[in-house]
User: Fold these one by one.
Assistant:
Number 1:
Amino acid sequence: MEIKYFAFLKHLIRFNRQVYFDHNATTPISSHVQGKMNQVLKNHYGNPSSFYGSGRKSAELVEQARKHISQAIHADPSEVIFTACATESNNAVLKSVAAHFYPTRKKIVSTPIEHPSVLNTLAYLETQGVIVEYCPVDNKGRVRLAELEKLIDEDTFLVCCILANNETGVIQDIKAVTNIAKKHGALVLTDCVQALGKIPIDLHAWDVDYASFSAHKLYGPKGIGALYIKQNSPFTPLLHGGHQESGLRAGTESIHNIVGFGAACEDVDKLLAHGRSVQKLKRKLIQRLKEIKPDCVINSPETDCLPNTLSITFPGVENAGLMGMLDFRGIAVSAGSACSTGEDTPSHVLKAIGVSDQAARETIRISLGRDTSAGDIQYMTQVVRDYIEGRVSFVNMLTPAQLNENILFDKKTFILDVRPGDDRKQFKGLPNSHQVNPLRVEHYLKQIPRDNNILVYCPGGGLSVMISYYLKAKGYKRVTNLRGGLDGWRKRRSDLYEKYAGQNVTILEPDITN
Ligand code: PLP
């Protein structure tokens, strides 16, 4: 099934080139890391808690990795524990430190541009009585230190400030944050996930108390994080069980992942040195994009910014359509808004720096990596140029809120359901829709009327946008994609879903002579 699926996608993507510009989401695993992990998977299955030879060997591998990580962040190995991910690291610190201080001290001061793993944990802590205050940032996302100073008081037990932001790349002056926090006896947590491997990190010099890390952002494996806990800082484990990680994080160690994380950290100096050429490519990219769209707005700061990260707004160009086209041409970028609810919820980070909701819908994030080449920049900017200058045909976008009875029952609209079978089993489809096998769309073309408006939908709006572009390429004039898919529509228009879903659905048969 999977092979068929990829073959189909390959067939859809006429320009079979794959370019990855989303390194802040995750990175490909490096061959050095992969080699080390394979060795562990093959040869070292001993449990590090066992006293016999193979157990001792595994324990040694874990300690070597811990050493590599602590060297990369300027910490002592005894101050680093392994977790499953940075989300866990952030949760563990926030919940543990709150439990330690509350109710003697009640307040955490943070920023509005933290990662959801911090923001949602803070929201949870608020339900438990903790007071959370957010320090404003300027229009480039830099924490206003004077405001921070005013917000921190004797009731504040923790200041939580992200080192480098995942969306815009803005870097904070953590040493200055720590200095202010310490004056009032508050501890400091900094999320260093995006920074490791991109800018130098010196936790001892900055005097922070806690810091979180994740391997998959620096060419390491997914499912492994780390947490720095400064010596003698309060910490209660999130997970109770065995005595692993000095009793601070129970659970048998994921040795291959830990070794992979250590190997990724061995490459940190090389990555930092390479940052200069990544930055050059980013400058080139900005220059080209400005030539294509002189009114584009760069949301990432010019200085104090990750070398690889660019948040850019193209006024008048909806990001969903642009991303669909980029994806169609094999280029991965991410949006300045989250489509999880089916509507473009403007990103909290862009909002915090004063970007309007509309501009957020016209914003994409491009994050370069160590293998990004000048050719990749050339290719992507050409695709952007073709799109912006109207040399490619557009797919219309419909939000879930816009999908009403007029469209659902419009005789001139042909509703094409390209959901996979498991979603169809779980949820009824749009009324008057026509189900096709999404892997074999080419076998239904004779049955999809060319003179109608075609409304394409899938569960989340991703596959359907690609199929929409495919139909465009096949000469269909009016193709519309349901942004956010059935999922978004069910949430947004549950009234219509309850009333009409599943009515008058037609299952089309593939035309195999085609
Ligand atoms: N913090 C930041 C800044 C991130 O970018 C991410 C991942 O996107 C996380 C935390 C969460 O990391 P993980 O995927 O390891 O849970």
Note: Residues 85-87, 115, 117, 162, 166, 191, 193-194, 214, 225 surround pyridoxal-5'-phosphate (CB under 6 Å).
Number 2:
Amino acid sequence: MVKVSASILSADFARIAEEIAEVEAAGVDSLHIDVMDGHYVPNITMGPAVVRGITSVATVPCEAHLMITDPGKYAPEFVRAGVSAISFHPEVTRDPFGTLSQIRDLGVAAGVAVNPDSDVASFGEFFAASDFVVVMTVFPGFSGQAFIESALENVRAVARVFDGDIAVDGGVSPRTAGRVAAAGGNVLVAASAIFKQTDRVAAVGALRTAAGSGGN
Ligand code: DX5
Ligand code: ZN
């Protein structure tokens, strides 16, 4: 049974509390919060103050996906802002293991994120030190991008060596969710496929149904 994580990047931030309540009522398992710094990726989203606002109204667990150049420096602030999991891109830090254990020592789950062009074979030791893995099926930076089919090979590669949750992030929709699940992804992260749909119950249901179909 897959889990669904709503990526709030495509939500209407003028009414974020209602948006969160709607997707929670639609049965999402968690919220995925994309933090971008304008350095690691060419987009800027939100910092700890806004994340605090999100976690204060959420009733499901919140993950911060840090697309920033210095995740270790800011991880404590995001934990204080109320997230229960933090992922980051290991290429950005000289000491990925130190960052993973720092995040765990803060009392939250730690995960590494795999880009479509990451050398997954060289990430094995990071996975062993992670509580979850995020496999990107778009290049990080923006919601609404097209799913990169070849990145499914990264999902399969991670699934061969990693037992924990494998979140798949980017272009996940009812059209792609079946292949994501068949490849071994068990957490569907979706922004557009949830928040750009007027009927959120139908949107979340369509993702689960597509994942259950095992490939399409
Ligand atoms: C991309 C983000 C994703 C993104 C997903 O950098 O990490 O979480 O918001 O958006 P969709 O589901 O629209 O591809
Ligand atoms: Zn993300």
Note: The chain has a mean pLDDT of 97.
